[in-house]
Each structure stands twice: as C-alpha cells, then as structure tokens.
Amino acid sequence: MKTYNILLIDDEKEVCESLIDFASQFGIAKFDADIIITDRQSWQDGAELLEKEYFHALILDARCMIETDQVDDNFDFLTIALERLKEIEQKQDRHIPFVINTGYFGEKEVQMMQRLITERRGKIFSKTLPKDEMFKYLVTEIENSDNTKIEKDYSDIFEVFDKGYLGSSFRIELFKILKTLNKDSKNQENLRAVRVIQDEIYNTLNRKNSSIVPNGLSAVERNRHLSGNFDNRARQHTNTVYQTETISYLSSAIYKISSEFGSHPPRKPTNVTVEYWEMPSNYAVKSLVFALLEQLLWFKNLMEKP
Fold first, then answer.
1. Which helix (H) or strand (E) holds 149?
2. Residue 21 in 3-state DSSP?
3. Of the given ranges (29-43, 136-150, 202-216, 258-272), which has the lowest mean pLDDT?
4. How far apart are CA 37 and CA 49, in angstroms?
5. Tens of pLDDT, residues 97-131
C-alpha cells in the first residue's frame, strides 16, 4: 500500500483530529493509500518539522499562529508561511503540493492571496465543505510530482526511507541525485552526495550493531571486515561475512572515486600524460550512483535482520 505523509498546520486541535480521522479512512477507501497526517499548531513548529522530515504535501490554515507562544492568530500567517515554503522548496529542489483549508473562504484577506496561491500551484478549500475534493486534489498533485514518480521507479530503494532506516535529509539528497543524473554540471555535487549517503549507511550499521561495522576502522579495514577478513594462509574467513564480493568492489569504488572527485576539488598530479583526467564523465558518475543503489539494497537487507 502507498503511504502519503501530509503535514497539517492549524491551531484548532479539533479540526486537526477530524482531518486525521477522515484522511485515514478516505485514503484507503478511494486510493488504496495510507494517508498519514502530522499536525502542528504554529508555523514555527510546522516549518521546523517540514525542514527535518519528508512530507508529500502540506495543508495550511489561512489564519493561524506564526510563533509557538503567540496568543492570537492572524492573516499574516499565510504571507509568512508561503514565503518560507518557497525557501524550503528551493532548498529541497522540489515543489511541495499544498492547499489552504480555511473557515474564512470569502474574506477579502484570503481572496487577496488567491493569485499568489494559484501561481504557487496551491488551491483554497473551505472548512465548511466536505473534504473529499481537497484530498482528491492533494493526492493527484502528489502522484504527479517528480519525486513521487521517482519513488515509484525505485520503490525497492525508497523502502529504506519508508522504514526509517535512513533519515529524511538523505532521502532528499537521493532525490536530487536521481533528478540530475544527466547533468554534467552536477557531477561533483552528486559524487559528494553519494559519499555522504554511503557514510550514513556505515554509521547506521555501527549504531545498530558495532560488530557489523566496528568503531575506528579505516575505509580499507572496514571493507575487509565486512567481507569476513579472509586469511589467505588458513584459507578461511576470520569473522562473519556481511557483504558479497560484488558489494565489496562496488563500495570500494564508491568510496575512492567520490572521495577523490566529490569531497575534494579536482586536481591533476604531476607527470601525468593522460589527457582525460580531471573529473569522471557522466557515465562514470551514473555507474557510481547505481552502485550506491545496490549498496542501499544490501543495507536494507542487513537492517531487516535481527
């Protein structure tokens, strides 16, 4: 079953509880989807969560609290929220589908925002009307988004994030990588991101069980350990084998190339006669990205073991 996570920002707790219940039933009945709503009562709290966690869409009130300790709501909320939302979208390199769910549908302050909301691909709905149309609109917008299409194409990979094995910031990084696979200008940036995700794979395994990835190992020692520390004389492994040779070779290539050309500026060593040196081509970067996807599958399998 598909899962859609929606952030709701509304200072009326009764409204939030009603929408949470409705979305849960409506999503399963109409879309065979689990629509999970997380609510916050101020823009400050909601924006902080939106930057840390991954949400497929956003529901905003028109009048709400801006600061957590604010006493009275006002229409300034909507102007501030939409401006900050634009910044978050730019940071995450995506459009976040949103609606305005308001009890002030006919108020001039809301109607004055209509043009901006439409330009930002949002829509206004009245709290007094049935919620079917609002959620139909949101689900359609979610399913048509670039990120959702990527999630469907790589559904087995994104289970890593759906199951909470890696955090939302790494999910966003992977989206950015997959969206720019064919852009040479993003090669160094993508290599850097590949290295960051690989590092978090090892850090997460270490936190799960330090016998899988012990503390204090160099990259070479870590790779040998995961491969079972084969003793050539005794012709046997000296510890548990956690990765196949395929994963060993791929992870080593990811680490070495992404470190050399992603984490550090390209440099040409002295006395090199090869003309084609500095940055790996787009073909090489693509191969490392798909190597990372293979490593993510390996990581997911390890995380699912007791």
1. helix 146-153
2. helix
3. 258-272
4. 13
5. 999 999 877 777 788 888 889 999 999 999 999 99
**280 pLDDT tier (thresholds 50, 70, 90):** confident
Kindly provide the b/e burial profile for residues 35-72, where b requires at least 16 CB atoms within 10 angstroms of the residue's own CB.
bebbbbbbbbebbebbeeebbbbbbbbbbbbbeeebee
Q: Is the pLDDT of residue 189 over 80?
A: yes
Residue 71 CA from chain centroid, whole number? 34
Q: pLDDT band for position 25 (50/70/90)?
A: very high
The residue that leads in pLDDT, 228 or 263, is 228
- Residue 254 parent element (H or E): helix 245-258
Q: Tell me the C-alpha distance between 92 and 83, whole Å.
A: 15
How crowded is residue 135: how many other Cβ atoms within 10 Å of its Cβ?
Answer: 25
Token couple for 145: 């988004």
207 or 68: which leads in pLDDT: 207
Query: Token pair 């990527």 is at which residue?
Result: 150
**Pairing relation of β-strands 230-231 and 123-126?**
unpaired
Handedness of CA 153, 156, 161, 163 (dihedral sign): positive
Round the average pLDDT of the chain to a whole number and report it: 91
Exposed / middle / buried, residue 94 (Cβ in 10 Å: 0-12, 13-18, 19+): middle
Report how far residue 110's alpha carbon sits from residue 125's, in angstroms, rounded to the nearest whole number. Answer: 11
Residues 31, 186: Cα–Cα separation, whole Å: 36
Sign of the CA dihedral with 52 first, then 4, 130, and 96 last: positive
Closest CA to 202 of 262, 245, 255: 255
Q: Torsions phi, psi of 6, nearest 5?
A: -120, 135
Range 279-293 average pLDDT = 94
Evaluated on CA atoms 174, 178, 179, 185, the torsion sign reads positive
Tell me the residue length of the chain. 306
Find out whether 174 and 194 touch, Cβ atoms under 8 Å: no
Helices assigned H by DSSP within 32-75: 43-52
